[in-house]
Amino acid sequence: MDKLKICLLLFAVVFLTDSYAQLPPVFAGTHSKDVQTEPTVRRYLSPVRLLWQTTKDEANIRNTDKLLKPGIGQADLAGRDYCLMRNTAQNKAGILLDFGRELHGGLQLITDQSRGGKPVRVRIRFGESASEAMSNIDTIKGATNDHAMRDFEISLPWLGKLEVGNTGFRFVRIDLLDDNAELKLKEARAIFIFRDIPYLGSFKSSDTLLNKIWMTGAYTVHLNMQDYLWDGIKRDRLVWVGDMHPETSTIAAVFGNSDVVTKSLDLARDITPLPEYMNGMVSYSMWWVLIQHDWYMHNGDLKYLTQQKTYMMALLNQYVKQIDANNSEDLKDGQRFLDWPSSTDPKAIHAGLQGMLAMTLTAGADLATILKDPVTAARCKEAVARLKKNVPDPAKSKQAAALLSLSGLMPADKANAVLSDRGVHDYSTFFGYYMLLAKAKAGDYQGSIDAIRNYWGPMLSLGATTFWEDFNIDWLSNASRIDELVPAGKKDIHGDYGAFCYKGFRHSLSHGWASGPTPWLTQYVLGVNVMAPGCKVLKIEPHLGDLSYVEGTFPTPLGTVTIKNTRLANGSVKIDVQAPKGVTIIKMG
């Protein structure tokens, strides 16, 4: 190769790796800090069915089937293949579209020529359930525009395109507003906004319901992996650190490493100067420590962990001081909170915080040792020893019992008796994960599998494609599905229920904190236990319960591990594992 070709090649390499190379020439000289790129992609999806329309009169609405065909996102002058919506003195035109599953994003509308070349006014309503898309924003059933606009009026262009909305939804209602108005609508496509990342983890067993639950939890979190890691894509589009723990556990099991986790953890840290607590809650800074511990074990990123040292060690020393002379947690200067269903029970909150503080300081001692701070490590260990001398009564609180068990303050079998009382009554979508973990600690793997089927399973039977902010098994009686209009005499599972901050339609039907069965099934049924930072040592210890087999994959920084566990005729389990170089496997059959 001559010198000229070498110079041209080097020029191309430098140009293509320059931070400005992807910008048009007009942006030459723009600093990279002035340009923000999105981590997400956009895909366009046509609706899968027309669920409802105001009238069957073709003078008002016709050719709705045109909207169900794949679109191209382009207006044209052909004057064909459009849905006609027309308001008359007798009827108004409105339609309800179903996109088949929960999505994050908005709506793209392509119009044909309108009367007089004037814009046409419409009302757009997004809904996570069919009934929410049919609702009004009022004080009756909690429909809101909180966090994301989901109900508004807009004008559509003559022979053009308009994109509108940024929320979580499955259903969209479109109403033509003005008297004697006419709309020729060529396309109404969902704009699906998500991170285009592979599902490296997988789970398949002899129970198709468990398989669907695993994938639904994974998909729920995937939708919430936006610019930051949110808790909900319709409402609670925020970084709630406590809510993140089930989500980061799911991400580790399904997607492996993701910068959305560290970016969100760092945001919480940077906006919370000590001695404040993250999100104003005494427990949420504890969740930050626990996530840091778990994330380091999975990814082994010591450089990132070291960046947390100054803040983390100060936070741990702050928590060490929050224990009174009776060896009781004395956490104050923030909201004392576990989850919403337990929030009215001060004794349960105290018992839960006692256990959670012990969990946090145990993890903190490990982190302090890794970060070469033996003084803080010793203080954390001494504080945990003190907390174990005072074990509050959880009474009937399953949240408190779970945390006391996981912290080692309460015997696992004693806690499991509380957790098993009345089956999955008094479960919650957030703390259900810790109830499952505590049951596993007691060796009640079959009880955990049954709880997953009986608590998360009914959401799927009601039409859910993502898991909800909350769910109460008592809501099932005479409840309607979320993918149908509520029949006469039925209860609206979305609009009629909910509590605290999630009453009625304000209730989020895609909440990442509800994904706990996904990492639980990976850890205890597929059997993957991380034993060394960076997944360099994995213990495979499956508990199949009543399953005949389970197979799947698990992402590690060194590559994907493939596992198949098969129950043999003699009752034992055969474990087959394929692991990448550098990952040591310990089989526990």
From TrEMBL:
Residue ranges constituting the Alpha-L-rhamnosidase six-hairpin glycosidase domain according to the UniProt record: 200-389
Superkingdom is: Bacteria
GO BP annotations of the record are: carbohydrate metabolic process
- The residues forming the signal peptide are 1-21
Asked if the record carries the keyword Transmembrane helix, the reply is no
Q: Where is the Glycosyl hydrolase family 78 alpha-rhamnosidase N-terminal domain?
A: 87-184
UniProt keywords (A-Z) are: Signal
Q: Which Pfam families match?
A: Bac_rhamnosid6H, Glyco_hydro_78_N
Q: What is this protein called?
A: Alpha-L-rhamnosidase
Q: What is the lineage of its organism?
A: Bacteria, Pseudomonadati, Bacteroidota, Sphingobacteriia, Sphingobacteriales
